[in-house]
């Protein structure tokens, strides 16, 4: 009598097909972002076994893993997930965890909300990062590279996340206790040899009182043929102007400058600015309303020709797929130039007209 073994072979083949091997040395790290940004950012580390492609299950969903793609969050040792540098999921909406304000002295006032469990707080003005000296009360800040030291983030992850969040105005980032996160740990199959997660609360639009300085003069590159190159001083910049349309305005008198600062959403003009108005013109450049964070405007050059200022600006915008705060913003910058002017033209760094604004608030 012959014994049929085909069903057994089919059964074992089926069982083998249901077993997911995944990459070797599989490790999974994730950052759970709440508040201004609601995203779960997952890095998958490892090396494909026996080929250029493998797969894992993340949260019960099969994800294809390949050699890492390019991008700001693509890190050494990680694999691309479904063709992207990281795996993304939305996080649960949570209540505000803290409030932060920055005083003219450069000190910060931090107030955690009732029930919030914070282990650290970071701050960025959109250009550099500070780690605050405490999570409550009046504290100072120390320069730091990105979000270095935040939760269980590796130094590379902390730098990458910090870089992604730059250029979005004044932000505070609070590190949340891992036991207080509203989202459960991500299920991973096969089980990773290491699983780390860090919860961060993003607080956008941190209130900053204008610093009591007159700014530092900058010497730009010539931008307009035939024009006289001028030095300029950046007085302040931000992302919460009351002006919702793009344009520029000039002002020279104290009342006009106060009005310009008010349109930028600032409550007062620093004394160092007011005392240096004689013989100078203040220019406000407004980018207009934008649907998310990640937009910015910066002056890179100023020239003058027959009483008209030509201001060269660099406009920043979030890259596709980048992390952005989900709040309406209106970026602006305010500069001071020597001389008296009543007209201003804005151009981009190629010399092409960006927008034209005139201001007669004098």
UniProtKB/TrEMBL annotation:
InterPro entries, sorted: PrcB_C_dom
Protein's UniProt name: Protease complex subunit PrcB family protein
Annotated coiled-coil segments of the chain: none
Record's signal peptide: 1-17
A GO BP annotation: proteolysis
Keywords: Hydrolase, Protease, Signal
Protein's organism: Deinococcus arboris
Domain PrcB C-terminal positions: 281-338
One Gene Ontology MF term: peptidase activity
Record has Hydrolase as a keyword: yes
Cross-referenced Pfam families: PrcB_C
Keyword Iron in annotation: no
């Amino acid at each position: 009598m012959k014994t049929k073994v085909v069903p057994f072979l089919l059964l074992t083949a089926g069982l083998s097909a249901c077993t997911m091997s995944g990459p070797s040395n599989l490790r999974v790290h994730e950052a759970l972002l709440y508040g201004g940004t609601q995203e779960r950012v997952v890095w998958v580390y490892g090396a494909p076994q026996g080929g250029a492609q493998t797969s894992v299950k993340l949260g019960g969903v099969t994800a294809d893993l390949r050699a890492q793609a390019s991008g700001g969050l693509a890190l050494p040792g990680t694999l691309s997930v479904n063709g992207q540098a990281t795996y993304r999921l939305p996080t649960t909406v949570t209540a505000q965890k803290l409030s932060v304000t920055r005083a003219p002295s450069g000190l910060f006032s931090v107030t955690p909300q009732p029930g919030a469990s914070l282990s650290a707080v970071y701050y960025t003005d959109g250009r550099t990062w500070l780690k605050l000296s405490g999570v409550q009360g009046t504290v100072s800040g120390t320069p730091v590279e990105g979000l270095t030291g935040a939760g269980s983030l590796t130094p590379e992850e902390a730098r990458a996340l910090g870089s992604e969040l730059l250029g979005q105005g004044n932000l505070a980032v609070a590190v949340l206790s891992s036991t207080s996160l509203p989202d459960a740990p991500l299920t991973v199959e096969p089980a990773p040899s290491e699983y780390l997660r860090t919860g961060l609360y993003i607080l956008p639009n941190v209130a900053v009182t204008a610093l009591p300085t007159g700014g530092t003069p900058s010497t730009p590159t010539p931008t307009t043929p035939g024009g006289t190159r001028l030095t300029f001083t950046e007085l302040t910049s931000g992302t919460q102007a009351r002006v919702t349309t793009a344009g520029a305005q000039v002002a020279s008198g104290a009342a006009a400058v106060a009005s310009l600062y008010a349109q930028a959403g600032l409550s007062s003009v620093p004394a160092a600015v007011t005392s240096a108005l004689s013989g100078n013109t203040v220019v406000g450049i407004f980018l207009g309303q934008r649907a998310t964070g990640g937009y910015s405007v910066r002056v890179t050059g100023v020239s003058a020709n027959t009483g008209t200022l030509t201001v060269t600006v660099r406009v920043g915008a979030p890259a596709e797929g980048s992390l952005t705060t989900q709040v309406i913003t209106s970026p602006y910058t305010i500069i001071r130039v020597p001389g008296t002017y009543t007209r201003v033209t804005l151009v981009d760094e190629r010399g092409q007209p960006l927008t034209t604004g005139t201001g007669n608030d004098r």
